[in-house]
Design goal:
Layout lengths: L2 E12 L2 E12 L2 E6 L6 H9 L6 E6 L2 E2 L4 H5 L2 E4 L11 H11 L4 H14 L15 H13 L5 E5 L7 H16 L3 E5 L3 H7 L2 E6 L2 E6 L1 H8 L6 H9 L8
Parallel strand pairs: 3-8, 3-9, 6-7, 7-8
Antiparallel strand pairs: 1-2, 1-4, 4-5, 9-10
Amino acid sequence: MAIGLEVRDLAKSYGGKRAVDGISFNVKAGELYALLGPNGAGKTTTLRMIAGLLQADAGEIKVFGTDARRDPIGAKRTIAWLPDEPLLYDKLTAWEYLEFVAGLWGVDPAAARADAERLLKLLGLWDNRNDRCETFSRGMKQKAVLAGALIHKPQLMMLDEPLTGLDAGASRLVKDMIRERVDDGDAVILTTHILEVAERMADRIGIIKDGKLLIEGSLEELRTQAGAQGQSLEDVFLSLTSQTKVAAQ
C-alpha cells in the first residue's frame, strides 16, 4: 500500500521549548490515522507544519512522494487542511467562496462549478449557496470550509477537530464523507478529543504528549503495548498520558 504521508524526525521549538520533539510516523493511502494527545501536546503544530503553514526546525515531510520542504507548492496541491476554527471570507457567499478557492488551485471553472454544486448539496448548504458566510452558524461554516478543502480533490486530508460545533446529523454526514475518502484511497489524519470517534473510525492511532510520540498502532496493538487488554481507547489514552515513564519506552 502506498505511503500517503511520511513524517520523519519532525521538530519545532518556541522560545527554546520543544513543541514537537522528533516525531516520526506514516499514514498510508486508504488509511485513517488519528493523532491524539492532551491539550498542548503538539498535535496542531504538527499538522500546521505538514500543511506548510509553519516552517519546521528539522525533519522531513513527504506527501505522496513529494518532499514538502523542497517543493511546498507541489505538496500543498495534494493536501486538504481543515483547521479547528473555520476560516472564511465573511462577505462572500458560500458559492463565491468555493469559486474563489477553486480559482486559487487552478481548478477548471466548469469542473469547479459541478463539484461546488455537488458538495453544497451533499453538505446541506445548497439552499444557502447565495447567503453570505457571515450569516452562517458555526456548524454551517465548518461544512463550508470542508467543501472548500475538498474542491481541488486532495489526496491527503488533515482534519483538526472536524466535528466541533456540529449537531448529530451534520457530524454523521462529515464522518461518512471522511470514510468515503478513505475508501477511495485517500490518506486521512485527524485530531479529536472525542475518543469514541477515534475508536470507531481510526485504522491506526498515534498518541503524543509533550511533543513526543508515545505509542502508535491499531487499537488492539495499543491495548497490548499498554497492558490494557479489553479496555476502551479512553482508558488506554488516560493510562498512557498520565504516566510520563511511557515516553521513555
